[in-house]
Amino acid sequence: MSATAHHPVVIVGAGQAGLSVSWYLGRAGIDHLVVESTTPTHAWADSRWDNFTLVTPNWHCRLPGYTYDGPDPDGFMTRDEVVAWLHGWLDTFTPPVRSHTTVTRLRQLGDRGFEVTLTGSDGVDTVTCDQVVVATGGYPLPIIPPYASSIDPAVTQIHSEQYFNPEQLPDGAVLVVGSGQSGAQIAEDLHLAGRQVHLAIGNAPRVARFYRGRDCMTWLADMGLYDTPTQEYPGGKAAQEKTNHYVTGRDGGRDVDLRQFASEGMSLYGTLVDGKDSSLRFAPTLTAALDKADSVYNSICADIDRHIEKNGIDAPPPSRYEAVWSPPTDPTELDLQDAGITSIVWAIGFRPDYRWIEASAFDGAGRPMQTRGVTQVPGLSFVGLPWMHTWGSGRFLGIDRDARHIADTIVETLGRTHPRLAAVQ
Description:
By secondary structure, the protein is an alpha/beta fold. It is built from ten helices and 22 strands. The strands form six sheets. Strands 1, 2, 5, 6, 7, 8, 21 and 22 form an eight-stranded mixed sheet that branches. The longest helix has 25 residues, at 286-310.
């Protein structure tokens, strides 16, 4: 590709969010380029464990011009089924993707758009563009705590994105650190496989899988929670910063009850705060964390009760979760060798990495400052971020709407700055 090649729009990332913007730009006749470091939608096949399932019902799965139309709309697709579904979508259009190419630098050219540096198997070259859409995912860098390097090197350590199945880990007990969606489900996966599991839990809340005859997420969708703009969402910024509720779609869907796991032999701890050699230290937060998660669980059920009553919906009677196990104490220490722990799975999340973008579009934590994906930097937009517009942003349920807004904004802007493009709107 010529170093002087120019495209009106460059989209960085060919996941479902970036490709959704491409779908709309293609419909509008806008020339654009999608740059992908590997292959389109690769993360679904490469970064999910073997027994992964969606935690949202299949009917949530909707992308531009394409919705789930299989036999189980209230079920939960497995990893391989999601991959097949996405391949079916990609068969419906031909996005202009340049694969196995990484954007290593994005530089503003004053008021003349952007210069994009591309690195691939053929070397390094550049293109210029008027508009850039960053669709690289919300948080691409896995978090590993700094003290991990001080832990006994005989203990295998991996991040949750590297976990695929229990067999990849050495024989022995496993410590899972983190109780968000990935941590809780990986702990369950290991537990069901008969492994001795130790789980350090954080402040993640939980939600019932089914309540009063329906999936809880279907109730919440009916209640408008996934459509409420971020600035109007109950709890404000604090609610948006919380870890997602843990639940699973495995085997048709069920609650993830850490207390039940404990009663079956899983060892639970509070927040892991430090480690050296074979010794780990935990904050005495286990009891409070379990109680808080159950409180959120019951609070969501109560919200659904009010919705049912307000709308006169015929549904089974209400109920509340009652604890099946409580910790006798809050453990604060663990010796890996004494416990027979041979591996650790870090499931404490990811962090943003936009160091390759040379633009004043980020807050002190390195997160984009944006409104519905549009920044104050002319021509720079983001898509696929959690809470970009609503709770549904970053999920299949909200991607189409978010991508359409970004594409519409781009088409309108290009129509103003490039009169010849106005006719394609």
